[in-house]
Specification:
The protein is an alpha+beta fold and about 400 residues long. The chain has helices at about 10-15, 20-35, 45-55, 65-70, 75-80, 90-100, 105-115, 345-350, 355-360; strands at about 165-170, 175-185, 190-195, 200-205, 215-220, 235-245, 250-260, 265-270, 275-280, 295-300, 305-310, 315-320, 330, 340-345, 365-375, 375-385.
């Protein structure tokens, strides 16, 4: 025994009966999406289900004249093709669309008007009423001068369309965005779509206060695979059309230009800092060294502008030309070497090497100087050989 096919749930999602007219499907979808669209305070999941139902039922509806003629003697909701518990506003809109579609079938159009007026009021059929066999009434004679069919109005080109979008030169990871607004004064589209070339992302927002106005924001997706991160390349060129599409087949292409710089590559010369051999001062107190200060220098160079922070080991500090300690970051321009000087800090060396100095044994402090910029780190080894001076281990 064959099991009858279950009706599609998409019909009830739109508030319609199985096999409703094609024009009714479109009208019900417009009414449902207007109620549930997130931009109008609706639920996003319900709006998505409404769109899926419309797409699934498109082309599966009946012809309006055949459907109404088949249900001519039925209850009002059956004539309209909506569920019995549908909201009166949906029935009214469906009835208006059916009446306009059946303009050349006057009897059927009058029956639709009757169904709208009696929607929600069960009508008892006359006893012994025979079902109608004829599907459509005979056509009316053509008019002497038929009016030209009215074409649906489609949105034209919007206001605010830029001639081009220029990002200029962007440093790696910059949060810069480009924004513009498009406004349709007449025949506003309900929604638009925007396709941005990689690695750009586009975000579209519609105005709730002004129908037909959309805000478009473009920003760079720094995690996109379009970036190669090859040291041999200075940056990635942003070049391609931004495509905006709207209802009625409208389309606009906006050229995009710009350069996204890759992360800076910082190098240090030499690749290690060796301060050689020095003699510890006779006292650990600052200001009384017996020898000139032990210093060394490194040169920083970068492939792109960068801000570098320096962290030396405890026995070393960064100084300027006059020997004063520095703790600020270093600003490195493109391909411009920057000299970074360091000096030995005696107190931590003498404290830790007291036992070695007591037996006249030299020590070799070692450590790592860390250079950090962005999310990258470069570590440079540093060392110095310290011989004990007279009284270096004394308190």
């Amino acid at each position: 025994m064959a099991v009858p096919a279950r009706p599609s749930p998409h019909w009830s999602r739109l508030g319609l009966l199985d096999g409703a007219p094609e024009c009714v499907i479109e009208t019900a979808w417009r009414w449902q999406i207007a109620r549930h669209h997130p931009d109008r305070g609706g639920d996003a999941e319900i709006a998505r289900a409404v769109n899926v139902a419309r797409d699934a039922l498109r082309g599966r509806g009946s012809k309006a004249n055949e459907y109404v003629a088949r249900h001519y003697e039925s209850q009002p909701w059956l004539v309209l093709g909506v569920t019995r518990g549908a909201e009166p506003e949906l029935a009214r809109r469906v009835g208006a669309q059916l009446a306009a579609t059946l303009e050349t079938h006057r009897r059927l159009a009058d029956r639709v008007a009757w169904a709208v007026a009696n929607f929600g009021k069960p009508v008892t059929p006359s006893p012994g009423a025979a079902p109608r066999v004829r599907v459509t009434p005979p056509p009316r004679p053509p008019r002497a001068m038929p009016a030209a069919p009215r074409m649906p109005a489609t949105p034209g080109m919007p206001e605010g369309l830029p001639a081009r979008v220029d990002f200029g030169t962007l440093g790696w990871g910059a949060a810069d965005a480009r924004r513009f607004r498009l406004t349709w004064r007449r025949h506003q589209p309900y929604e638009i779509s925007v396709d941005a070339p990689a690695p750009l992302r586009a975000r579209v927002a519609s105005s709730k206060a002004m129908p037909g106005r959309f805000a478009i924001e473009l920003h760079v997706d720094w995690q996109h695979d379009a970036f190669t991160h090859e040291p041999s390349l200075r940056g990635h060129t942003l070049d391609g059309p931004l495509v905006v599409r709207w209802a009625g087949g409208g389309e606009a292409r906006i050229p995009i230009h710009g350069v996204a710089l890759y992360p800076a590559i910082v190098s240090v010369s030499p690749q290690s800092l060796d301060l050689g051999t020095v003699v510890a001062p006779s006292r650990r107190f600052v200001g009384e060294p017996a020898q000139p200060p032990a210093r060394g220098a490194l040169a920083l160079i970068s492939s792109a502008p960068a801000v570098v922070s320096v962290t030396p080991p405890a026995w070393l500090r960064r100084v300027d030309g006059s020997g004063r300690a520095r703790s600020d970051d270093i600003v490195v321009a493109t391909n411009t070497p920057v000299r970074v000087e360091f000096a030995v800090v005696w107190q931590p060396i003498i404290e830790r090497a007291a036992a070695s100095f007591a037996v006249e044994r030299s020590v070799r402090p070692t450590g790592t100087i860390s250079f950090r910029w962005g999310d990258r780190t470069l570590e440079v080894p540093a060392q110095v050989l310290v011989r004990p001076g007279k009284g270096a281990s004394s308190t």
